[in-house]
Amino acid sequence: MSQQLFNPFQDLTFDEHFCFLSGVLATETMSVFPEWLMDHFKLGDERIEMMDKTKSYQYTDLKLPCSPRVKQAFEELDVKVRAAYNEGYEGMAALEEEELFQWTGRMVYGLLYYEMIYERDRLLRLGKEFNLSPHLKKRFGHFHLMLQSIIEPVTFIGKKPWTIAVFPLKYSSDIFSYRDDAISLMFSFGVNGFGFIACLQDNGIVGESQKEILQKMKGHVLHPVQFEELYARFHYSDYILQYRPEQKIEHVDDGITVETLPIKPIASKPVFGLWSDDIFAQLLSNYWQVYGIEREHILRFQKPPLSFLEHPYSKDFIDPESIELPF
Q1: In whole angstroms, how far apart are CA 132 and each of 119, 137, 177?
Q2: Domains in the chain: boundaries
């Protein structure tokens, strides 16, 4: 395939007249969040904030310009994911990782798209030029290219360029937990029956750092407070990652290949920076506020930091059934 795929980050092309994924003229629109998901949890009138907290949108107002081909591809994927969703954890765990990447990637990229438009328009009103660093252009461009695997012959060689963890989770049936970080390309999703966490462009590095706790979790149905702590661990690990995940993109006769490149750390700079209990406790308290757990409850004088995943001394996994907090 000698033809280059559309890369909106090359010239910062975010225009309602062009398909967000393929770059062709847009004749359709599609929702950022799957409509069946919004209907199921009655999210339509709820609002979601942009990262700087000064702008928010109703979920139903978040639309992406697209071509019929792109809309059909995501609708077909949605049918498959919805069927898996109805089967709970077993159904979601049976999906291919690439399908979960594409499904979550649609939402994360959709929010990133709106972040780009919002920042561009904000700077325009101030008479300033909208631009991104070369690093972010490359990172977001690679993410966009990987998302095009839903319509183009983009294949992944060897280790996947993402971490996706799916696990059983116990929530009340009417509860829906969703978090994302569009800039870090992270996503978490929890409902009654299952949850999953996705780092969409970490080359599996963040997942590797958490493999011990993921192994301990097996066979357990997580309590929501454990789910929130797990996502906080992923999020903070991504924050202290000191090397940029890189991918090798090659054009071959029958498409494009994406290969993750291994990190080669130097002795003076480990893969991850120093873990700060203080910073982590501040992050975790944001997720645990619904339980009334504040930072000062997590960092306890002359005691190990509070955890609902591991016992502080033995490091054994905490049985979810022993946790008395509501779910």
Answers
A1: 11, 6, 31
A2: 28-322
